[in-house]
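Response to reviewer comment R2.3. The reviewers asked that we include at least one raw input/output pair. We reproduce the pair for Glycosyltransferase family 2 protein here without editing.
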Amino acid sequence: GQYPDYTIRLYKNGVAKFPCKDVHENVEIIDPKNSSRQARTINNYLSSERSESRNIGYLQNPILHYADPDFSRYLMRWDRYTSLEVEKMPKDTKLGLFNYIIWKPKITFLMMYFRHKGFMDGFPGFVFALFSSIRFWGIYIKWRARRQS
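Raw output as returned:
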């Protein structure tokens, strides 16, 4: 449900770096003219004028990345990521019940399963789309628990 995922993965030292601030972050491309850094995905980098100053492009073949060897490892990561999402929120954040319980899960499932073709992965694609969508339930439940404590 996430393929193809065009992300900057390989780069020369000094050209870019990971800021190590978040779980899913973009590479920061270093502007050679003024040493400023800007988080970019490969798509918005290639569509900008900066691509002329740095040699960044697509690989001819995909890098297959299997982050979780089994489902229990996936669930541990799912739990950790939902907790991190809640920790990033300011204490006074207000989450809409309808938004987090109905709307966001529905849209996420449809995007993962149909737009990103999770259905082509069979049952694992369905499970991935399902758990990607119900992560909002986990975030909402953990947010409420934090608010009540």
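The first helix runs from residue 42 to 46. The chain has a mean pLDDT of 80. Further pairs are available on request from the corresponding author.
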